[in-house]
Amino acid sequence: MNAVISSEQLTMHFRGCDALRGVDLDIQPGTVFALLGENGAGKTTLIRILTGFQSPSSGSCRVCGIDPLSQPLEIRRRIGYVADQPALYDWMTVGEIGWFTASFYSDPFFDKYRESIRLYEIPEDRKIKNLSKGQRAKVALALALANDPELLILDEPTSGLDPMVRREFLESMIGRALSGRTVFLSSHQISEVERVADTIAILHDGKIRVCEPLDQLKGSMTEITISVEDPLVATPSFPEPAEILCETTSGRERQIIVKHFDAAMIEGIESSQSVVGVRVRAMSLEEIFIAYTRGSITSPESIVSSQDDSLEDHRAVETEVSP
Predict the structure, then answer these.
(1) In the chain, fewer beta carbons within 10 Å around the N or the C end?
(2) Is the same domain home to 29 and 127?
(3) In the predicted model, what is the mean pLDDT of residues 17-24?
(4) Residue 124: which residues within 8 A CB-CB, separation 6 or more?
């Protein structure tokens, strides 16, 4: 099956900033693919390249089998895009902006748009400027879906929305994937993504740290807590294929995040010098994200707070993609 999105060693260098540093992707059709990353990780830069608004410094990519560099307009005809702050004409009404956008597409566009607007219970005669943020997001989604695109790209689409609107918005993406279409969801709202995504990629410092099916990723990650008598004794080694991602020491306890841990390894750890106890537990996606992006075990509350308060290092160059 041909990939909907594929990239090889994509790099993007801005003055004083490497936004992307060798990104490889292979996204299959009929999936909800979630790209997770902190603010400034390079998510919007990657989307701009995939949609033909930005030329990469090096590397290549294809979207729906098309090169965005050579055929950017064809890419935009075949995909839908929703940003966290959709660029809509405030002076138009809900009906007028659908009629205007329909002029760029085939005849069924306007009818499908009006059907979505009725479903979202938004009056067609209301001015865009008088809509709430949640209603604006629904109008943007209706515009993006009216052409029944092969690929729907959502860049932080639920930022600032109330919980009910966020849930409705994301759950509609599951039905989209079940119909054979593909959803590319960029976000740092990890708990929401976990409910709908099939595949997870974590982008950090311009690099893809991991890209796996969600169930496979969660099944491969384990937190090990080792209690020792002597805090100066080295942490026991783990046999292959186990891989230690990070370790935190607190007194006589060692918290270790391990990938590909096997329960059969517990006996060997317990028999190691100075070890008096071993506890094992599965990890949430939020904890996995922290381990890959921070390299240490941090409370979920502190990581979310720091993400919400931070600004993107290259905000000036990561401008919003127009729908």
Answers:
(1) N
(2) yes
(3) 93
(4) 93, 94, 95, 98, 114, 117
* CA 147 distance to own-chain centroid: 23
Nearest to 277 by CA among 240, 224, 223: 224
Whether 96 and 199 share a structural domain: yes
Q: What CATH number is attached to the domain comprising 135? A: 3.40.50.300
Q: What's the pLDDT at 84? A: 75
174 falls within a domain: yes
- Domain tally, the chain: 2
For the stretch 38-90, pLDDT in tens is 888 899 899 999 999 999 999 999 999 999 999 988 998 889 998 877 889 99
Does the residue 213 lie in any domain?
Answer: no
- 265 and 127 share one domain: no
Rounded to whole angstroms, the Cα distance separating 64 from 68 reads 10
Does residue 190 contact residue 285 with C-beta atoms inside 8 Å?
A: yes
Q: Which of 98, 97, 127 is nearest to 111 (CA)?
A: 98
Among residues 308, 20, 55, 60, which one has the least CA distance to residue 187? 308
Looking at residue 7, its pLDDT comes to 95
Rg (CA), the chain: 22
Choice between 246 and 323, residue whose per-residue pLDDT is larger: 246
pTM equals 0.82
Domain holding 227: CATH number?
3.30.70.920
pLDDT value of position 146: 92
Task: Label residue 104 exposed, middle or buried (CB < 10 Å: 0-12, 13-18, 19+).
Answer: exposed
The residue range of the domain holding 272 is 220-309
Would 93 be classed as within a structural domain?
Answer: yes
The sign of the dihedral angle between the CA atoms of 306, 308, 311, 316 is: positive
- My answer on whether 108 and 193 are in the same domain is yes
Domain boundary, last residue among 147, 180, 205:
205
